[in-house]
Amino acid sequence: MNRKNSIVIVSILAIIVIAGSFFIFKDRANTNVVENKSGIQIFSPKENELISSPLKITGLVNGDGWTAFEGQVGIVRLFDSNNKELALGILTATEEWMKLPVNFETTLFFDYPGDGIGKLVFYNENASGEPERDKTFTLPVTLQKSFSDSMVVKTYFGNNITEVSCDTVFYAERRIQKTQAPAGVALEQLLSGPTNLETRAGFFTTISPGVKVQSLVITDGVAKVDFNGELQKGVAGSCKVTAIRAQIEETLKQFSTVKSVIISIDGKTEDILQP
């Protein structure tokens, strides 16, 4: 073999090695990319991961029937090996929800007496209500003995299926992390409005978006709650005013420490929520 041929062979081998290295590197890089064929990707927990209460769930949706609607992505249910439901959570968008992909999160609180296996079942946000558009995704998990540090509060809304009335409201239950100030958390839940699941059950709110609690003080059975100006912005008519008051008052009166409610806006109680 002459020198010229040797140089050619060495050059060819070098090209093969470089090309092979490129494809190996490319394959390794691609191992960090998770294919999202189902339209939903779960960041946490991982498949078969050991979980306990409270469980924070994060992920994203990216089409194929998995989208967001009014800030919600869908729901998730936790089941044990006997298909007993242990918890339910609302998948809430953590960013602008009108453009995909959309990140979401939720936290589940649950009780489980011992170690075992279970599954998280994710359900898409099917705003159309058409059964053929329903999507599910199942993630197997390992359950650890847990006692949830949580509590249930009630949020009061109108309901156009049960009864439509100015002063009649009905409660939906929300599970929250146990707190020393449940009345304030219940109000925040109220102001967030009905979930899409609750909306399908007929719940609706008369309180406008953008309303915020500025302060809440409970003394001698009287709850004094102050809101920002959005509470009565654009409010007209005695029926709507009555409905807003009923939602706020009943949400606060669920607690034994509250017998009556005084509503103010920016510290003023006069001419508040007048028809």
Description:
It is a single chain. With 275 residues, this protein is an alpha+beta fold. The relative contact order is 0.11. Strand 4 (72-80) and strand 5 (85-93) form a beta hairpin. It is built from 4 helices and 14 strands. It has 3 domains: 1-33; 40-143, Sandwich (Immunoglobulin-like), CATH 2.60.40; 150-265, no CATH class. The protein has an 8-stranded mixed sheet, with no helix packed on it. The chain has a 3-stranded antiparallel sheet with strand order 10-9-11. Strands 12-13-14 form a 3-stranded mixed sheet, covered by helices on one side. Helix 2 packs antiparallel against helix 4. The model is unreliable at 6-10 and 12-36 (pLDDT under 50).
Shape category:
globular
Count helical runs: 4
> Based on DSSP secondary structure assignment, what is the total number of beta strands?
14
Listing every helix as H and every strand as E from the N terminus to the C terminus, the arrangement reads HEEEEEEEEEEHHEEEHE
Bin the helical content.
10-25%
pLDDT < 50 stretches: 6-10, 12-36
Structural class: alpha+beta
Reported for the largest beta sheet, the result is: 8 strands, mixed
Mean pLDDT value: 86
What's the N-to-C terminus distance? 103 Å
Strand content: 25-35%
